[in-house]
Amino acid sequence: MSNSSSSRLFELINSGESQTLEFKSSFDKACIESLVAFANAQGGSVLVGVSDAGDVLGVTLGKETLNEWLGHIKHSTTPGLIPEVSSHIIAGKMIVQIRVDEFPIKPVNTKGRYYKRIASSNHALTLNEISDLYLQSLQVSWDAHPSIGLDIKALDFGKVDRFLAKVKEGGRFDLGNQDMQQDILQKLGYIEHGRPTWASMLLFAKEPLRHHVHIGRFKTPSHIIDDRQFTDTLFEVTEQAMKFIVSHLSVSFEFDGSVQRKERFSYPLPALREAVVNAIVHRDYTDSSDIQIKIFDDRISIYSPGQLYGGLRLEDLHSNHYPSKLRNKLVAEAFYLTGNIEKYGSGFIRIRKALEDYPEVHLEIHESAHGVLLSFLRVDIQPESQHITDQVTDQVTDQVTDQVTDEVLRLLAVMRGPMSRLEIQSALGLKHLPHFRDAYLTPAIKEELLEMTIPATPTSRLQKYRLTSAGKTLAEKIKAKK
Predict the structure, then answer these.
(1) CA 140: distance to chain centroid?
(2) CATH number of 385-481
(3) What is the DSSP letter of 324?
(4) Could you tell me the fold of the domain covering 213-378?
């Protein structure tokens, strides 16, 4: 090996394990798992004879050792991997570099187990991720497959008419002189072999598929003011979600010298709409989880099931040149043809552009094992829980009993962590449920001094109640006064 090659390899070791580099002290099945993970991602190298910490340990090689390793790798992987193998002397010790490129037909597995390289570790693939990799290799998407057990009678052709009118208005696709809706849908790929594709069902079904958008207005993480679940076809659910969001935003008015005043919402509506459309278009529809939108005083978060697709990374989304990766190609095409998407791969660019006029709103993006969370944070507003605590601390005085009924004060005094209705009644020595509910429980909740532990299901048999931040502060004040 040349000095320059030795130097490059030494630099690699010093840089540590990464998306494309793994260290192994010896050759074993874990090496093969890493090679599979690299082949299912961007390719990479395993350096055998190097510890996890990057210490060069070296390995002992016989005359046929490397050929034996190659044979073992090939026979332990499907499709069979044939990597590049080379030996090198580093710091007077022998190490082996085993390198594979990204495999063109994915996913590759070893003895039925599938892995993908993410950051500096190997990630075992779920069934959905295995399916995604396979569809990417074929350059098709799940939503292009014909739906199972359904025919075109499952479609609402009123929705189809509205869609085609928008397509014609936008001018992004020449519908020609065809008058038959079915012929046009087939031309666009929304009908395949006489059956609607999954994209067609998501967009035009009479009975919408059970993919929900769950949206709520929160005062605190456990105090929900308004809560809705929308289940509809995708164009319709987009509008329903946006109407709900707008109804819970504050708005101010600005005058710039013209006759008309200008509305300024607390968040830029184009950025919010882009984020909602992005969540609906790019979510993983093979995952049964809901899209979740939460509106707080100081932030709006939008969670979409499914990790970033096709090797896209979080850092890519912060650039203006990230590649377009479409999990649901036909759904994305429908939103593009109707003008809901301006250009593939430009959504986050437009979000950042819209935020330029809102310096008080910051964008955060996080990826978890199951999805992507997008948050718009208002840095000029404290969280509501802090507001409540501050207000109560300032306002509770010796006249506190004039503001809250004696019954509610008694209830606050007996609370000891989360308690069930029966536990609170028993602590108060009350047997009559209607009186307890009307005089104690309901007023305490109304005054935001008590909250449910399961607010989404008020009648749950597991329901308990606990003091809010305001309730705790008031209870402490009462105790101190006594």
Answers:
(1) 22
(2) 1.10.10.10
(3) P
(4) Heat Shock Protein 90 (3.30.565)
End-to-end CA distance of the chain: 84
**CB-CB contact of 230 with 290 (8 Å):** no
Residue 323: asked if its preceding bond is cis (omega within 30°), the reply is: no
Query: What does R_g of the chain's alpha carbons equal in angstroms?
Result: 30
CA angle 199, 204, 209 (to 5 degrees): 70
Q: Look at residues 328, 3, 322 and name the one whose alpha carbon lies nearest to residue 135.
A: 328
Asked if 171 contacts 164 with a C-beta cutoff of 8 angstroms, the reply is no
Specify the CATH architecture of the domain 3-138: 2-Layer Sandwich (3.30)
User: Smallest Cα–Cα separation from 456: which of 294, 243, 231, 280?
Assistant: 294
Among candidates 481, 482, 477, 475, which has minimal Cα distance to 414? 475
Q: Is 367 in a helix, a strand, or coil?
A: strand
The number of C-alpha atoms within 13 Å of 307 and in the hemisphere containing its C-beta is: 17
Q: Which residues does 16 contact at the CB level (< 8 Å), separation at least 6?
A: 54, 120
Provide the residue ranges of all domains of the chain, joining segments of one domain with +: 3-138, 143-204, 213-378, 385-481
pTM score of the predicted model: 0.59
pLDDT in tens, 106-153: 899 999 999 999 878 899 988 878 877 777 766 668 888 888 888 999
